[in-house]
User: Fold this.
Amino acid sequence: MSTSTSKAPAISKEQAEAIFSKGLEGIIAGETAICSIEQGGLWYRGYEIHDLAAKATFEEVAFLLLEGHKPDAKELARFKAELVRERSLPAPVVGFIESMGGYLASGRAVPMDVLRTAVSILGHLDADAQDNSPAAGLRKSKRLLAKIATIIGHMQNVIDGRAIVGRETGGNPALDHAANLLYMMTGAAPDPTYARVVDVSLILYAEHDFNASTFTSRVIAGTLSDMHGAVTGAIAALKGSLHGGANEMAMEMLREIMRDVGEAGIGTPAVDAWMQRAFDTKRKLMGFGHRVYKNGDHRAPVLHKLGRAVAEKDTKNPGGHPAVRWFQLGEQVQKIMLEKKSIHPNVDFPCGLTYFTMGIPVPQYTPIFVASRITGWCAHIMEQHANNRIIRPLSKYTGQAPRAW
Assistant:
């Protein structure tokens, strides 16, 4: 696990052009003590992801990322109480979500865009909004962590046309973060198995080094802009189908395959033929490959195992097909990708399958990603503010040669 803290020497533009890499692939753009990604594993502040997924809760991981160390029982109780107190939303944010109900229900607006705007509105209403001090940053981080889950729940309520659950309280104070998120979306007490699976998914998604959205948040924070602005930018980056939106697109791809080949086609050459057509037309297949992990995403098997166990217990999902059949289809697609393209699935692939099996609406997959990654974003924003240097890379010019006007 890399822990270098040495300052890189300045280099000339000519030297920089010699190591140019499109998309900054393979380029170290900064230092962090929050997360390390290697071919052999993923660590949050020194704790390996499989260890966390098996033994920790999301609140413990959120504390680790935001406050910097593993909490003891007293610290965890205090942290959870702070989150519960911050769950409810200011009236202007609730009013905005309600005003978007028709647009969300019709598909004219999408949850990620509504979430982005709701976070921006929170920035107007937070007394600490313009204070970039460490103490204020930590307070804002906890508020955002608590309130983003409530925003998601309220959005789903207005989409479904039901009264808003937990308007005054932000849910059930007796429920942990993941369980309360499910409760807020449905108004029903969540299945404990579902709550644990969502809890683990939040752990797996909480932090991932200098990914596109986190890097976006650090670039914004590097100008000494505020946390809400940096998070708003990160949400916009995460929305894209090449980043957080991949879990939604992966599920849509499987739906398309199921529609084209039928349930009877699972396990037959019909799926192979569908995939070959996708290869022939150079179609981008979402949920596969990773810029860093070349030998497989360490998080994917954890979520796949949990999701498949849920599918094997359930009888039917909202699509009307036995839930396990979706996993069988997904496993066949994974096998074809590995055999023909040597590409492994990333965590977005089993995430889509798992959330679908539990009946979570597909447009909410990426907002739930935000409910987790907000911890990583806020940790990075605070780290950037604490030891700041504005992020200003060079570019490689490819335009016209100098000429007279």
Observations:
- The CA atoms of residues 100 and 154 lie 11 Å apart.
